Amino acid sequence: MTSTARVAGVLSVWLVFSSLVLGEDLKADERAAPEGAKPAPSAQGPAVPPPGGEKAPSAWEQLDDWFDQAKSPAPWLKMGADLRFRADYNSNYRLNKELPNHESSFQKYRPRWWMTLSPVKDFELNLRITWEGRHFSGPDAQPDFDPGEVLVDNLNGKFSNVGGLPLVMTLGRQDIRLGDGWLVGDGTAIDGSRTTFFDAARFTYEFKPIRTAVDLIYIDDSYSGDRWINPLHDLHQPLLEQNERGLVFWLSNRSLKDTEINGYYLYKDNERVLVNGDDGFVHAFGGRVAGLVAEHWKYRAEGAHEFGERNSRYLRAFGFTGCLSYLFKDAPGNEVRMGYEFLSGDDPKTRTNEAFDVLWGRWSHWSEMMSDVWKFETRPKEVTNVQRLGPGWSCQPTEKLGLSADYQLLFADENTYRARRRDFSQEGRYRGEFLGLKASYTFSEHLRGRLWTEFFFPGNYYSDFRNDVVTFLRGELYFTW
To 10 degrees, the CA torsion angle through 391, 395, 400, 401? Predict the structure, then answer.
């Protein structure tokens, strides 16, 4: 199959997205016509206003009203659903266009349905069911269609005001993201963004007089996701490379104006299941601060120190991430930023493993494409041994349209594999340059779309065998109820 054919699926979504945007813009132009301007003639004749001069609700408005009413058919029941359609194209994520199947194109369909039951005061039962199927246009080695599993990706009981105290207890399968999700954000790394759940028990106690909350979380995740709840349609697809148990202590304080301060301790124990799984344990101590400085400046900074044992080697590592943004607060909502991230790399000259472990932070923080590039160096979405520095810009020129651009310079902290693999150069530490462009559009309360493209230009950290430009394209439509 030619590259043109493989891109066709992505471009079709781009065209649909663009036509919808243009259609909305034309409607906006009509709404913004000068007062007193005559409407264009209609083949159906002049519109007849309803009795009383009131404007009749449109079909979309009537549909919105029906959705709102159907969400809560009873005071003790709330329901919702969404449907996400993605078309992706990726070329050369292994940095070599001479390799077979160096291009891939596929479409992903992810419907979800959820409900919340509140039979008594201070108790909720939450349920969510997810399915995601994929249709592959290439490479030829893939099946044409992967039916995927049907999963219960949320099933938990939430108890509030436990014992008359400001204590919230959530038991069962749940989504958890702490801070910016740098180290705690995704409990099912292998399956991408289909699911992010944790099988966990979470206790949150709030000290209201000092505006402080403490989270204590126990995590018990299985590599296949069936330790506690079997999939409704089970294909035995792994969600992790190992079984994981962990403990999270997370403190949040908001006593200072426009400021959030976090301190945390994370413990993770790994039991290898798949060949590329981990054995061992990690302790991490860290802190985070985020907030506003004056009227226009926004910042966040987070750092963590790790020690433990990973695959029979002593682990000692450090990581930092931060961003400083300037908010113009103008009509288009312009914002510029400068970000920096450091994740220590493994020094091949020592017996200690210095590679920073992102723990439960294996998700696409700043790039979809680079999540695949890490595969031949570590594992999917397992970013380590990197210094990342670069500016970004975003704005919202209209109420519905959002735009952003990010440029990154990437370096390696250590040339870990220079003596063992021909994919990496002997001396270089310059990973290369990254460019990402995104556009989002909100068509209505229930429908929005996104387009983005990413490019990676490899540097001298890689050998001549791995120096081809990587390209990523995505079109997405997202419907919510």
Answer: -60
Strands 212-221 and 145-146: unpaired
Spatial CB neighbours of 225, under 8 Å, sequence gap ≥ 6 = 151, 188, 195, 231, 239
In whole angstroms, what is the distance from residue 404 CA to residue 389 CA? 17
Distance CA 299, CA 292 (A): 6
CA dist 292 and 326 (Å) reads: 10
Residues contacting residue 427 through CB under 8 Å, at least 6 positions apart? 415, 418, 460
Q: How are beta strands 145-146 and 259-272 bridged, if at all?
A: unpaired
For tokens 């079709």, the residue is: 12
Find which of 34-48, 205-219, 418-432 is predicted with most confidence, using mean pLDDT. 205-219
- pLDDT band of residue 71 (cuts 50, 70, 90) is confident
H or E element that contains 113: strand 103-117
Residue type, 426: Q
DSSP 55: P
For residues 129 and 236, the model is more confident at 129
Element (H, E) at 200: strand 198-207
One DSSP character per residue, 31-53 reads: HTPPTTPPPPP-TT----PPGGG
Per-residue pLDDT tens over the stretch 100-123? 888 889 899 999 999 999 999 999
Averaged pLDDT for residues 185-200: 94
pLDDT number for residue 50: 52
Q: In terms of residues, how long is the chain? A: 481
- For the stretch 254-286, pLDDT in tens is 999 999 999 999 999 999 999 999 999 999 999
pLDDT tens-digit series, residues 391-415: 999 999 999 999 999 999 999 999 9
Helix (H, G, I), strand (E, B) or coil at 67: helix
Residue 285: beta bridge partners?
265, 305
Distance, CA of 344 to CA of 321 (rounded, Å): 12
Q: Determine the longest span between alpha carbons in the chain, in angstroms.
A: 84
Asked if 223 contacts 240 with a C-beta cutoff of 8 angstroms, the reply is yes
Strand extents, DSSP E, 294-396: 297-310, 313-327, 335-343, 386-395
Question: What is the structure's pLDDT at 51?
Answer: 54
**DSSP at 339:** E
Alpha helices, DSSP H only, in 243-305? none
Determine the Cα–Cα distance for residues 403 and 324; give it in Å rounded to an integer: 19
- Is cis: bond before 139, omega within 30 of 0? yes
Q: Which residues of 208-236 are buried (b: 16+ CB within 10 A; e: fewer)?
A: eeeeebbbebebebbbbbeeebebeeeee
- Residue for token pair 């003639």: 41
